[in-house]
Amino acid sequence: MRIGIVCPYSFDVPGGVQFHVRDLAEHLIGQGHEVSVLAPADSETELPDYVTSAGRATAVRYNGSVARLNFGPVTASKVGRWIDQGEFDVLHLHEPVTPSVSVLALMAADGPIVATFHTSMLRSRTMQTAYPIIRPSLEKIAGRIAVSEDARRTVTTHVGGDAVVIPNGVYVDRFASAPRRSEWIGTPAAPTIAFLGRMGEPRKGLPVLAAALPEVLRAVPGLRVLVAGPGDPEEVTEGWPPDVVAACDFLGAVSDDDKASLLASVDVYVAPNTGGESFGIILIEAMSAGACVLASDLAAFSRVLDGGTAGAMFANEQPDDLARTLVDLLRSPERRATLAEAGQQRARIFDWSVVADKILAVYETVIEGRAAATHPQGRWNRFLRGGAR
Amino acid sequence: MSEVLSWVFAVLFVLVVIAWYLTYTAARLDRLHVRLSGTLAALDARLVRRAEAAVELANSGLLDGATSLILANAAAGSLEAPAEHGNARELAENDLTEALDLALTPEAVADLRSTALGTDVLARLSSACTRVQLARRFHNDAVTDVRRVRRKWTIRAFHLAGYTPLPHTVEFNDEAPEHLAVA
Hints:
Number of domains of chain B: 1
Number of strands of chain B: 0
Low-confidence stretches of chain B: none
Number of domains of chain A: 2
Strand content of chain A: 15-25%
Number of helices of chain A: 16
Largest sheet of chain A: 7 strands, parallel
Strand content of chain B: under 5%
Radius of gyration of chain A: 24 Å
Helix content of chain A: 40-55%
Order of helices and strands of chain B: HHHHHH
Low-confidence stretches of chain A: none
Oligomer: heterodimer
Helix content of chain B: over 70%
């Protein structure tokens, strides 16, 4: 299959949509499909050979945040050329309502089109003003995908119609084969737990974990807490009891490889997030790496953990409950092993191979619909299509 | 004299703009109708494939006789249903969904998965069910789009939709059998 994928955000900076596009493209190429990605990028940025640059991106304020986007007549004609030369069987646009190459491709394209909606925070004022302009183009999209239930709600309220939910994928094997590091492996007397995420951001839940630690340390004095993620430890630990601070190791921001190794090495991975998570990809990564997961009982986390069978859960924002569950887990290696194994099994259903199969099924349905389309006959309709076909 | 001319040009200009707008709207509607005919044909093809997979399962000899009969009956009902979408067709598809759910109990699925043929049939059925869901959702999206555009007064006033009937969404239960989920 010849597939054209359009990413509206610049490849110069990392981001969720860019990673999604990169992983999907690489997986599809691995399966033998011909894939071309169009995205804004600086000429100095090192690009994989399947990516075509749509030109330099400009930082623009849109929908409440600053994004690096690409637009203008020169870009529009570049997008048109890319579509003409690509002769794609299907065109897959990401974030089609972002004023960047996706919307330009949508306006220029005429074949089967699939669109993926990532954002769950679309401002209605933006949509109301933008709608009359892009509505007719949006009607060209034959298959809509949303990456989460929240993103789907955005589609149903702002765009109309519905979307199929296909979540982000994870390369399970990349995490499952991560080497364990001796300095992060716990012993029965000194077990290790990990926290990942921006330390200074309260909704990632580090304060909840800190509040639970005194009690946990009373039960398990040798415990080591490995905290990975950007932030200033001195600022964050202000006001913490000294024994809690002493138990913590601050690793700073870690690379992807280190993150995988950390998750594979520790006894328990704790995700005390208090809200704002629509999916919980980090849990799937931890489960893939074979970590025993302990997470707050957010709806998104509960979905990933299959209601608690693939990882332990505690009542959100309740340090007492967190402490109790954590101590139980630390004292029971058998239960940790069972949960870790169930988690690793469950992570498989979020693997890119499964996710990409669903996306391919969408491509096929859309292509089939296009091939089977019958053109209304009559002089009037022929005239509208310029006498062609 | 020149005043009359400029009036003539003004009126001509307005007429051209109106004509352009009407042509543009008609083209937009035509494109939507083409998309709609495609999604409907795709849905039909997917439904046939689902029914065929169900027949295959019924004939595999891996299910007990009574269950096979129920399943074969429902699948035949779907295959013989009238081609145009309507109440009768939707009922037939509902019946097939229900029959599949009844036939594929957790034990039956476990049994089927223990044989190579069973695994094969289940994989095809599961993929067919997913694709029915996709096709139906995409078709209903197209219906929603068409109906919204056809509510515009320009389209009604100038009769731009011609004699194409107003489409209706296709409603039936297309849930994949509960126990068929990826193991």
